[in-house]
Amino acid sequence: MSAKEIITLQLGHYANFVGTHWWNIQESTFEYDKSNQEKEEINHDVLFREGLTDRGEVTFTPRLVLTELRGGLGGLRADSDLYDDCNDGLSESLTWDGKTEIYRQPPFEKNEYLKDLDSEQESIKQEATNGHGVSHSYNLEKDVKVWSDYLRTYLHPKSSVFVNDYHHNSPNNPFDLWTKGTCLPCVIDELEEKIRFYAEECDSLQGFHIIVDSCNGFSGLASSLLPYLRDEFSSKDSVSFPVRPATYTEDSVSKYNTRNLNLALLLPVLMGNSSLVNPLSLESDKKQDKLFPGLIYDVNLDYHTSAILASALDSITLNHRLKGNKGVDLDGFCNQAAVGTRNLVCSSLSMPFPLHCCDNLEDVNRVLSSTATFTAITPDICTDLQAVVECYSHTMSMRGTPAAEMLIRKGRSPFNSCEFSDVIESHFAAKYPGSKRSCHFFTDCMKTEPPFPQFFISENTKAVSQAFQNGHHSNSSPRINGHEINGVSNNHAHTNGTARTSNKPRTLVPVLAALECTSRAMGIFDSAAAALNISKSKYSVYGLEAENMESEIEYLLTMRDEYKPEMSNGWDTDEDI
């Protein structure tokens, strides 16, 4: 039976941070014991491909094309260690008969995790056993500088494309403008060639997952690439995830405006060339950090914030990566979430979902009603509590569904005749009456084996339980501002007396992720249109045509009105744009 393949594109450094965690999560679920493979829920062939090395060894690598700036790979080889015979080939490639000098870059110093991974992979080759041998935590908060510092998965040589005109974190020539990304024809040609390579080997290509940095020049690169995908693969679906970090090393007003301008220019292209668009970020809304009562995460660490976004990404996409007829295909997934021309959706996440607070189904219903349970991970949405909110569609995925015998039937409770899934579905039916709804339940929790950050708080911590009992986020909800968490003291940590997990990693976490097509998305269009207006006087500096920008503003405001609820309750900010 066909795997109904999907090709993934990662465009940008932070997109690669998110993608690396995503591939690691997926590989942690691989079942190497053939006797247990039939029990797996996930069809890994949707996103991974099987191949052979030159030595005849079977490989299983992501069907992935990624882009990165020079210097953004760290110690990862561009041509992949997987397809190399450990000979650098220098002697064979030299044809000059005269005197030559060879300059070698000092070897990359691997962190503890990568060293252990090398040992583990060698053991797998020799023993052909299950590769899940990592059994302790790593303090990678101090070690991770780039995404390859925690990459578990081997990549195919056709995966990497480099923007050689720009260097990662260059202060003199930063890759920070949408227009810079639109002026890279050689990069676009190479991307198209590698996409065709993967597409031609697919039996039944469904479409594309696209993770793209929305805050820098990669927004322009994506804007140049997506029309090609729409023209060349017009019958295929594309789901785009524009992502951006939670914080930035430089955060002046001008850089803030530039980042918003990049997203504003990318957004119309994504909506016009994608089946579904889901912006993701933990960037604070009006100086309020994104709080998760069960996590102590560092908002300044891309290694942390990208792990949370990858958890949502893995859960959101799970229902079109299942075996057999258990889920939906990519087209069905897009049709569930989008409503007419409204193809921009918002995400929220509960991680870990607080099952430890639930002894019975009444507790489950109470936890679902708590505002502390779900955290919005789509930036710029309207947060006005007085505004009328209309939900047009709601799609959710619950991972770690408890068995019926694990929840006590309490007295004469009306929930006694219900199952766990019934409570979830009835809650969202009552919350979003009249909306298009889809609920998906999975027995297995999400795996969070190292190198996933071990930023989980002990389930027995009093502060965590109180957050859900009180029904709202507390300003002192557990989080951390510093850069060390695994048992290392930090004077800037705000943990509210909570206890971190032990040195033994927590490897299974219940997760509930949701997609909503909602009127709250109007805030995204407001922000984008405002960014274009603010930059009006500098259009020529950015290499933009004023007339084209006026049409973009008009498009954004038109799309904004598509999301407007019938009774707006005065929620109309056109005059502020």
Structure, explained:
This protein has 577 residues and is an alpha/beta fold. The chain is 30% helix and 15% strand. The chain contains 14 helices and 17 strands. Strands 5-4-1-6-7-8 form a 6-stranded parallel sheet, sandwiched between helices. Strands 10-9-17-11-12 form a 5-stranded mixed sheet, sandwiched between helices. Strand 6, helix 6 and strand 7 form a beta-alpha-beta unit. Helix 6 packs parallel to helix 7 and helix 13 runs antiparallel to helix 14. The termini are far apart.
Structure described in brief:
This protein is of the alpha/beta class and 577 residues long. It is 30% helix and 15% strand. It is built from 14 helices and 17 strands.
| Class by alpha and beta content | alpha/beta
Outline type: globular
Helix content: 25-40%
Strand segment count: 17
Largest sheet, order of strands side by side?
5-4-1-6-7-8
The averaged pLDDT comes out at: 84
In terms of DSSP E residues, the strand content is: 5-15%
Largest sheet: 6 strands, parallel
Total of DSSP H or I helical runs spanning 4+ residues: 14
Radius of gyration: 24 Å
